[in-house]
């Protein structure tokens, strides 16, 4: 088991930069939600730049120390990093690293990525309703200096799009949190208790505009805080079309356990970063409530391997069916 000292993450304060190109509408809604979540840490102040970031304690992982993946030396030019937001502290903000000025003290030259619309997915006014955009096309904003290492979660895969756009989409093998109750009718009046319910999924294929993306649920492993395994039922594989990409809340750093981490480490399972996992999903389950990890003498590795194989077969079948319909 990983034994680490008390860890904290820092959220990036809303209103200090033009995150989404519509600071007045989305920023105000976000601040209202943040006040409900962290009322004791926020004060009324017209000069938002003076507000200190919120520090949130992070539970220990079971095996892998994710902080080793975000040390000062992990940062480099032209990288995109996710940062923790001021809503519920999940990594929904993106920063382009332009220069590593120094490591000690830690100092970066960055620009926050922003977007004024979600037209690439459909007519839903996601940004105007106060939600963070985490998939799609982004633009780099003004340069600024960033000194807080604890604000950053993980390095993000990205590609360059038309006219220099930064494109971020779910990739095969990624783990993302989905909004469990998502609806295209969500707006600035949707209650937090409806919004902040999540399901963890593993992405089975790269996103495409025509196909969308396929995902399969991740199920909590009994007896652990941060360990999950693929759902064993291939019928649970979901195809998320382009119009529903707003379901994706944020990417969650993950580590595939090899079984060498400790005597009780379940090989083939995914350990998720507790700093990017909602607290309700970090509760230890003492009794298996959905799928037992050991069935009829099968070991964890065999079960996970079988689930992976079946899920990949289902994904291929879905693609072939779509191609046949297009040919017809």
UniProtKB/TrEMBL annotation:
Q: Where is this region: Disordered?
A: 1-41
The cross-references to Pfam families, in alphabetical order and at most eight, read: DUF3444 (PF11926)
Q: Where is the composition biased (Basic and acidic residues)?
A: 1-12
The DUF3444 domain, residue ranges? 55-261
Q: Which PANTHER family match?
A: DNAJ HEAT SHOCK AMINO-TERMINAL DOMAIN PROTEIN-RELATED
* Identification of the protein by name: DUF3444 domain-containing protein
